[in-house]
């Protein structure tokens, strides 16, 4: 849930304000992204999710998981998958609309012959979804939603987002941010909105909204065709996965208000090494955020690209080779 200044709430000192050291996966070699999507079979996809109302009175989050997009659309090579988290504010209507219309809005006109076409398709989908919210008279112009989607086509991972939901990739246990939080305190976003005549007050856009990009919120946007400080233009990141890439975490801001990206990766990776169950890991991440007193709704999706069995075997071998019983240690010391 995006904070609006009119709704009093406790503001938690947040690791989500951490500087993204690699500036949203900028250290990844973008030149390695193929010109076409003819990518062969890794990864093996499975996912789990968990959502909780948290301390809020109402639940305004929605999410979507489609592990087998090929079967749903009938025209994509395998593997293909799609995931989305929609974090509503000012009511749940915008987030619910996104979830209920995800196939029409995000997938129906998806172009995949070139990677540039994938980016353009997702960008157009976000903008069209925003216009739909403006045109639907049943949805209040004061309601809106942040949104983050992850599209997987073979080894190609494409993440698009508006707002402060976040996607984090685990590469051999290292957190790589696949999205940027669009908050008024983020310098490039602050400059953009201020150049358009808006202002930032106490971390809020025009003293009202805690994000600078969102779907809906048409009471804060200029008429269609005009340039507005609050926009629905997504940032899109894409990479080609390697066998070092273990899983992706997609979560709403209620998670990142109290956990850093690396902390979340460490918790999920530890769980996968124990039981290899992404649903249990998603639940554990939500429960940890609640334990740390987050003040928001909570939604997490964990998408696994490979089994953690090989990592677990390595960990067990290391543990066995380095362990020594108390009794053996006592005997050893007796001979010193």
From TrEMBL:
**Example of a GO cellular component annotation carried by this entry:** cytoplasm
Entry-linked SMART domains? PP2C_SIG, PP2Cc
Which InterPro entries does UniProt cross-reference here? PP2C, PP2C_BS, PPM-type-like_dom_sf, PPM-type_phosphatase-like_dom
According to the entry, every stretch annotated as the PPM-type phosphatase domain falls at 46-305
Query: Keyword Ligase on this protein?
Result: no
Any one Pfam family here would be PP2C
Q: What's this protein's family per the entry?
A: Belongs to the PP2C family.
Keyword terms of this UniProt record = Hydrolase, Magnesium, Manganese, Metal-binding, Protein phosphatase
Which reaction is the catalytic activity of this chain? O-phospho-L-threonyl-[protein] + H2O = L-threonyl-[protein] + phosphate; O-phospho-L-seryl-[protein] + H2O = L-seryl-[protein] + phosphate
Q: One GO MF term, please?
A: metal ion binding
Name of the protein in its database record: protein-serine/threonine phosphatase
Question: Which organism's genome codes for this protein?
Answer: Artemisia annua
Q: Where are the transmembrane segments?
A: none
Is Hydrolase tagged as a keyword?
A: yes
Q: Which cofactor does it need?
A: Mg(2+); Mn(2+)
Ranges in a coiled coil: none
What EC number(s) would the UniProt record show?
3.1.3.16
């Amino acid at each position: 849930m995006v904070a609006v200044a009119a709704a009093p709430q406790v503001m938690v000192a947040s690791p989500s304000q951490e500087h993204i050291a690699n500036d949203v996966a900028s250290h990844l070699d973008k030149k390695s992204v193929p010109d076409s999507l003819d990518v062969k079979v890794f990864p093996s996809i499975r996912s789990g999710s968990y959502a909780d109302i948290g301390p809020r009175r109402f639940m305004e989050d929605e999410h979507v998981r489609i592990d087998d997009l090929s079967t749903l659309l009938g025209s994509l090579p395998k593997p293909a998958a799609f995931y989305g988290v929609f974090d509503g504010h000012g009511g749940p209507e915008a987030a619910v609309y996104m979830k209920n219309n995800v196939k029409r809005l995000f997938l129906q006109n998806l172009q995949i012959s070139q990677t540039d076409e994938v980016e353009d398709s997702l960008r157009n989908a976000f903008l069209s979804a925003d216009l739909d919210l403006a045109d639907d008279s049943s949805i209040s112009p004061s309601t809106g939603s942040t949104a983050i989607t992850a599209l997987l086509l073979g080894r190609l991972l494409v993440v698009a987002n508006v707002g402060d939901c976040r996607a984090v990739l685990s590469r051999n246990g290292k957190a790589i941010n696949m999205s940027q939080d669009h908050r008024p305190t983020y310098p490039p976003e602050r400059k953009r909105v201020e150049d358009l005549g808006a202002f930032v007050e106490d971390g809020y856009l025009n003293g009202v909204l805690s994000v600078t990009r969102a779907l809906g919120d048409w009471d804060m946007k200029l008429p269609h065709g005009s340039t507005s400080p609050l926009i629905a233009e997504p940032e899109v990141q894409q990479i080609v996965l390697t066998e070092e890439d273990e899983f992706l975490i997609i979560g709403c801001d209620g998670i990142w208000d109290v956990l850093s990206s690396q902390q979340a990766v460490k918790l999920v990776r530890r769980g996968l090494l124990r039981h290899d169950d992404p649903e249990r890991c998603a639940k554990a991440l939500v429960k940890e955020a609640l334990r740390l007193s987050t003040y928001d709704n909570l939604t997490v999706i964990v998408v696994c690209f490979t089994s953690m069995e090989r990592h677990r075997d390595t960990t067990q071998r290391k543990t066995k080779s380095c362990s020594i019983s108390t009794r053996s240690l006592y005997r050893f010391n007796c001979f010193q």
